[in-house]
Amino acid sequence: MNAATLPPRDLFLAFAVVAVWGTNFVVIRMGLDHLPPLLFAGLRFVLAALPGVFLVARPAASWQNLAAYGLLIGAGQFGLLFVALRGDIAPGLASLVVQVQVFFTIGLSIWLTGERVRGYQWAAMALAVAGILVIAVHTDAATTPLGLGLVILAGLSWAGGNMVARASGVRDMLAYVIWGSLFSAPPLLALSLALEGWDAMREGVMRADAATWAAVVWQSVGNALFGYAAWGWLLARHPAALVTPMALLVPVFGMGASAVWLGEPLPPWKLGAASLVMAGLALGVLYPRWRRV
C-alpha cells in the first residue's frame, strides 16, 4: 500500500506501539524498585525467548549473527540502560538521550560502507549534540554524568544491533528478536550474579510484588514482542517513510509519562534540550522525504 497517510486503524496501531515504547522507560524504573537492574534485564529476555523459540521458527540468520545481536541489544543496550535508570538518570530524559542511536547508526553505516555524510545529516547531528551538551551542563543528583554516559553507550550498542540486524537480511523481526533473546539472557544473568551477587538477586525476587512482575511481563510481551510484531506488520504494508517518522514520538511519550507518573520536572533547559535533539532527529529522518516531495 502506498498512500499519503496511514489509514485510521494502522495509525492507531502505530500510536499504540510508540506509546508502549515511550512509557516503557517509566515501567523499567518502577520495576527497579525491587529487582537489581541486570537481573531485571535478564528476566526480560528470558520471557522474550521462552516459550517463543518453541513456537516460532528460527529466522534465516546465522547463529553468529543472532549471538551478536543478542549481546549488543541485551547486555549492551538494555543492560546499560537498566543500570543507568536505577538512579543515575530520569526516565523521561533517558527516553530522549537513547535516541542518539539514530546518529550512531548513520555513523556506523557510513564507516562500514564508505557512504558520504550529507549536509543535512551533519546539521541533524549538530542539533542533537547541542541538545546532549545542554543536558551534560545540567547534570545533577537526578541525572549524573555516569547516567548520561551509560545511556549514550546504550544508544551506541543499539546502533550496533541495528547494523547486525540489517546484515542478517531477516524481514521477520519478531522471530529475530525472540531467537536473539536466547543470547541476551545468559550474559545478563551471569553479570547479575557476578556484579550484583546471589543475595541481591534472591532478595529482589523475594521482594518483588505483582507490579514488579507485571513490569517484567510488560517489558517482554508489550515492549519486545508486541512492539516489534506490530511495527514489522506496519512496515510490511506501508512505505518505511510513512511509518518510521512515528518513532519520533517515543521521547514525547517517555517524557510525558515520566512527568505524569513519576513527577519528573520539566524545567526550561530540559525542554530546550529535548527540542534540539528532536529537531535533529526530525531533520535526519524527515528531510530525505521532504526533498523527494
Task: Explain what this protein looks like in three dimensions.
The chain is mainly alpha-helical. It has one domain (8-292). Helices cover 77% and strands 0% of the residues. The radius of gyration is 19 Å and the shape is globular.
Please outline the helices and strands.
Blueprint: H1 8-31, H2 37-49, H3 52-55, H4 63-85, H5 91-97, H6 101-113, H7 119-137, H8 145-168, H9 173-180, H10 185-196, H11 198-207, H12 210-237, H13 240-243, H14 250-262, H15 268-292
Gist of the model:
Helices cover 77% and strands 0% of the residues.
Descriptive keywords:
15 helices, mainly alpha, globular, 293 residues
Report the end-to-end length measured between terminal Cα atoms: 18 Å
Structural class: mainly alpha
Taking all residues together, what is the mean pLDDT? 91
Strand content: under 5%
Number of beta strands: 0
- What share of residues is helical? over 70%
- Discrete helix count: 15
Oligomer: single chain
As for the number of domains, it is 1
Order of helices and strands: HHHHHHHHHHHHHHH
Question: How many strands, which pairing sense, and closed or not: the largest β-sheet?
Answer: none
Gross morphology = globular
Low-confidence stretches: none
Radius of gyration from the alpha-carbon trace, in angstroms = 19 Å
